[in-house]
Amino acid sequence: MHKARVYVTLKPSILDPQGNAVKNGLESLGFADVTDVRVGKYLEVSLDVVDKNVALEQVEEMCKKLLANPVIEDYRFELVEG
Amino acid sequence: MKFAVIVFPGSNCDADCYHVVKEVIKKDVDYVWHQEKDFQAEYDCLILPGGFSYGDYLRTGSIARFSPIMNKVIEFAEAGGLVLGICNGFQILTEAGLLPGALVRNKELKFVCKDTFLRVENDQTPFTSDYTKGQVIKIPVAHGEGAYVCDENTLKKLKENNQIVFRYSTSLGEVTASSNFNGSTDNIAGIVNEKGNVLGMMPHPERCAEAVLGNDFGKYIFTSIVKWLEGGAPGGK
After folding, report:
1. Which of A28, A34, B87, B131 is deepest in the core (most CB within 10 A)?
2. Hey, is B60 helix, strand or coil?
3. Is A78 helix (H, G, I), strand (E, B) or coil?
4. A29 touches chain B (CB under 8 A)
């Protein structure tokens, strides 16, 4: 069994109005040192796969085909056992 | 001549599209459920309606894009068939790779539901021959994630190939920053693919296709399609 922790983030060139809103919220709370906030997605994908390389390949394909949209997003992931 | 309206779980403009085809332009039309693996009839134009397919989970249109019927929609489009994607339909078409770019959250974060003015940039498509280039039309939008984005190369290609069909403008047709309410790249409201047979647009022409609903500017998308299919428009069959 493996679990992939997948992080999907907006490409730097894409505006993130949601991140800006969060930044403004943090500023209102008094966190004056915040210079930028970007909101992304975090996914946990559990796989019934024993071989780590097979799991890596599968998660890579999942990211490319569905979990991230390469036009607007970047992705990275880490694989842990269990 | 026969139209199909593809229905996904969460589509909510399917009945409006069906109504316009059947009652306003008086053509045959079927609903086609997204789980169908094949079409049961021969169609001349497919409409992917607005709504919130699969609750907009993950990204708008990203799950609908893998519905069984989408294989046939892609095949149909690649063979040159006319495909019109409105709002969520536009989002699905970009996710499916039938149109370049993507649609992201509006710059002000708000869901915007209002009449917008569009300048017609290309009247030579199968969808716009009943408009004239430079004409300003009033069509409503209703979306939270309708900001069109693409990289610079794609934008350059869209311009070179005349693929930008509608731009958000003022009532006088000026394409300004203030009329770009959702933050779309280059005020883009609608584009066609390179071949010109697939149109995606965020505004809803099906919501303004009869005078009783305020205006009928939207009807001319549908009459243009009919004209093209009947061979009465440039490049028509």
Report:
1. B87
2. coil
3. strand
4. no
Residue B237 placed within a domain: no
Ramachandran class of B225: left when φ > 0, alpha when ψ lies in -120 to 50, beta otherwise: alpha
Q: Establish if B37 belongs to a structural domain.
A: yes
Look at B109 and A15 and tell me if their CB atoms are within 8 Å: no
Q: Could you read off the pLDDT tens digit of each residue along chain B, which spans 237 residues?
A: 999 999 999 999 999 999 999 999 999 999 999 999 999 999 999 999 999 999 999 999 999 999 999 999 999 999 999 999 999 999 999 999 999 999 999 999 899 999 999 999 999 999 999 999 999 999 999 999 999 999 999 999 999 999 999 999 999 999 999 999 999 999 999 999 999 999 999 999 999 999 999 999 999 999 999 999 998 665 554
Give the residue numbers of B marked as catalytic: 87, 204, 206
- CATH number for the domain that contains residue B41: 3.40.50.880
Q: How many CB atoms lie within 10 A of CB A12?
A: 8
Is B156 part of any domain?
A: yes
Domains of chain A: 2-81 (3.30.1280.10)
